[in-house]
Amino acid sequence: MRVFWILVLGACNQVYGLEPTVLSLGDAHAPFRCPEDDSPPQFSPQLKQVLVRPCYGYTVSTRDLAAAWCDDGIESTVETGPVDGDLTPISLPLTAAGAYAHQNPALAPEGDLLLARQVRGIDDYVDSAYRLVDGAWQWESDVLNPPGYGDFFGVPSAAPDRRLLVTRQYPGVLSELAESGGVWTEIATRPIAELGARAPVQLSPDGLRAIFIDQQRVMYARRETKADPFTNAELVPTAPRIIGAFMTADCGRLYFSELGSIWYAEQL
Fold first, then answer.
1. Degrees (nearest 5) of the Cα angle 174, 78, 128?
2. Are 2 and 25 in contact (CB under 8 A)?
3. Pairing of β 101-107 and β 124-133
4. Above 90 in pLDDT, residue 243?
5. SS3 breakdown of the chain: % helix, strand, coil, rounded to 5?
6. By the 8 A CB rule, do 164 and 158 touch?
7. What is the DSSP letter of 21?
8. How far apart are CA 176 and CA 229, in angstroms?
9. Inter-residue contact 173 to 192 (CB < 8 Å)
10. Residue 190 sits in a domain of what CATH number?
């Protein structure tokens, strides 16, 4: 299996914009730091394979918990597990009338809050927040009920003063929500064109850094305070060309899903 993936990746380097790939299956964590200025972090062309499964939207918390949405072609499930370890399905309550499945999980930095989309039909869903209580996930509140067509939420920042960015393709704005006591309130909207984000925007735990995907390119933005908007996103030039990504709190790893597996690139 390892040889197979090396061959596949070697054939796909041009697609993902990578240097020749050297594949390894896990190293010890290194002490990483985010850039102190506005420049984007730099990542190695060496990719590391975490899990050989068709799972998407992989996010990790600072409590050694990861979450993803996995689809084997027969059934799709929201799953969690240790960072870089195996994932297993979890039970999330379906509280929205007519909902039959969950998609698009986004794990908060603390690891005890999970956002997920309750699917009721084509373009019919409710975005909800779930809290981990005594080992079980419980519905806490609805974040967007219902979200608009073309609305996408990303990974929220940490509490207190938790923030969440929602990309609203129609009417073309980026909404910032604040959470307090399980209640999510829209506090600001900006034109999408200011940041250029038309996909989910992932926030860092402090809410001051953001990444998103634009035409398979990883884009990075930074702001001085939460009162400031995100503007002038920059390309992460050393990142692979991918369709979705999550960056860890220390900017040390860039996780993504491609070729039926979960991978990460490590900071240079």
1. 45
2. yes
3. unpaired
4. no
5. 5, 45, 45
6. no
7. P
8. 9
9. yes
10. 2.120.10
DSSP letter (8 states) at residue 207: S
Q: Give 22-81 as a DSSP string.
A: --BS----------SSSSPP-EEEEEEEEE-S-EEEEEE-TTS-EEEEEE-SS-EEEEEE
pLDDT 10s digits, 124-170: 999 999 999 999 999 999 998 888 888 999 999 999 999 999 999 99
Structure token digits, residue 94: 């379906």
Q: Whole domain around residue 88: which residue ranges?
A: 2-267
What sign does the CA torsion over 23, 27, 30, 32 have?
A: positive
pLDDT digits (tens, 9 = 90+) for 163-211: 999 999 998 999 999 999 999 999 999 999 999 998 999 999 999 999 9
Residue pair 57/69 in contact (Cβ under 8 Å)? The answer is: yes
Cα–Cα distance measured from residue 70 to residue 57, given in angstroms and rounded to the nearest whole number: 9
> Residue 237 class from Cβ within 10 Å (0-12 exposed, 13-18 middle, 19+ buried)?
exposed
Q: Which two tokens stand for residue 59?
A: 């996010």
CB burial of 193-229 (b: ≥16 within 10 Å; e: otherwise) equals: eebebbbbbbbbbebbbbbbbeeebbbbbbbeebeee
User: Before 146, cis peptide (omega within 30)?
Assistant: yes
- Supply the pTM of this predicted model: 0.87
> How many domains are contained in the chain?
1
Instruction: Report d(CA 200, CA 103) in Å as an integer.
Output: 14
In 10 A of CB 3, how many CB atoms?
8
